[in-house]
Amino acid sequence: MQIHGSTALVTGANRGLGAQLAITLLDAGAATVYAAARDTDTLRPLVQAGGGRVVPVTLDVTDPASVRAAAAEVVDLDLLVNNAGSATFGDPLGADLAGARSDLEVNYLALLHTTRAFLPTLEAAATAGRAAAILNIVSVIALAPAPHTTVYAASKAAAHSLTQSLRATLAPRGIVVHGAYPGGIDTDMSAGMNAVKADARVVAERIVAALAADTTEIYPDDASAALAAIYHADPRQLERTLAG
């Protein structure tokens, strides 16, 4: 899609990959980035860095009323970035069930509800002849879980399936749906994960470059690209590789 001159909204933009995606979109020439978070005070550094092009938006993706209010506030949108996420780690028998519910709520159900809420604005952009797109931040372990990522991987697998369904459903409406499948990223959310972690800035830059190149399935770091190559050659081999 055409990033330069576009208007984007990034959920979970107050930290980690979300903040880096917002900055990278600005660097690529986005005219406006709506930075969404539950507490807009946490967005102050991003707003200050944005030079007037970052608009803070109060948005709790798990609260339907908050989602509706944010969708009513954002009246012009070309790109919706569903980045907000929750991560609970643990094996399939010992992972916290409350965390499992939270991961499904944030990573799948909230993604669905947020997309539905902002869809009319994206459709208006497409009708006006502008490039309109949705970017879902998924995870490479949506394709196969590692033992300690059981709960998180299941919620991201649901997000992966939804991304595929949305892509088919929205294509006739002129809206392109992208899925990004990073591996481990060096952020606060992954602090408890023992794995190789990519720099969030590099991951964001590769995702935005892939958007500009109209790539719909994005593997934005070396680890995810290697795992994706295994998956596309033999899905069961990826399962065995991550299980080991």
From TrEMBL:
Keywords for this protein: Oxidoreductase
Gene Ontology CC annotations of this record: cytosol
Molecular function per GO: oxidoreductase activity
Domain of life where this protein originates: Bacteria
InterPro entries: NAD(P)-bd_dom_sf, Sc_DH/Rdtase_CS, SDR_fam
Family: Belongs to the short-chain dehydrogenases/reductases (SDR) family.
Protein name, UniProt field: Short-chain dehydrogenase
